[in-house]
Amino acid sequence: MMSRRPNTWVLWAMALGIGVLIALVETSPFATGSGGLLLNLVFWATLLQGAVAAVAIGELTNARWPASVKRELLAAHPLLFFHALLFLLLIPRLDSLPWAGEPNPWLDPSFFMIRNLVALFLAAGLAHLLARESLADGPRKRLFAVLYLFAFVLSQTLVAFDWVMALSYPWYSTILGAFYFVEAAYAGFALGGICFFLLLRKSPQGEDSLVETHSRDLATLMFGFSILWAGLFFAQFLLLWYGNLPEEVGFVVERISRFPLREIAVIHLIFLFLIPFLTFLSTRAKEKRPVVLGVSVLILAGLLLERFLYIHPATPVHAVIFLFEFIFMLILFATVLATRAFEADTPQRKTGRS
Q: How far does the chain reach from its first CA to its final CA, in angstroms?
């Protein structure tokens, strides 16, 4: 078998080049005041951490479905380190945050960066350990799954509170942290649905029924998480409506009273709840991988729209800058996924018979 080192060096060189390009864009006058990088960081934190969290949840529950796409979901975990380094590019923007200058130790810019970097690198390190143990079926995979999920919850909570909620200071929502780590796990399952179609559409002979079973299990999880997401969404909306506080009501009104935010608010509800819920009510739909693929893509699109809805009114997102950075991140993600997913010989892939 060929050594993995050349592929690793090529991928890191590619990551370095993309990181330099993003840094150049962010230091240009065109990026002044744009929330494009922040929107990208929030979305990719959701997808990358959520993919590993989906495997961790599968390990702890002895689920069968992760065995078919475990290698794919864990393939991009090194990008969590790259993502943490990109977070450093937000340092020049800290002074422009609404809470800058507040006499509060928690809102100190230095402490802001330190706690978030610690959480990001902790999640990345534990994701690496979990991937190594899980792919080797090591004895400590459940231990690292538990440790990773703790780091995952911590990191996603800070993403919700520090990266998103702080933009609309003094608005706050105590449920937003739970909302974000549930959504990240939801994104991980959706990525699994995409992997089933793109990477396992030609299953080894005799394994079609097994892959369909795993795909059905994953679709059932997405169905359940669509209901969980809707419950959390309603709980948050109910608290805002019942409290009727000016800063809370103003946060909602700003996002549902004008174009295009009003339309985006409706679309993201349809993508994250209505379509997955209604589609996966049918057992037959759960077994069709093209259907699972379509719903999975819509879920990820809905999560991206939701993050835009939270961020854009507080920090306007420059569309060109966002798309430039998003496309390069997507290219890097797809390259890492395709390269690492097939480093091992296909006949050696585990199919979940154990």
A: 25
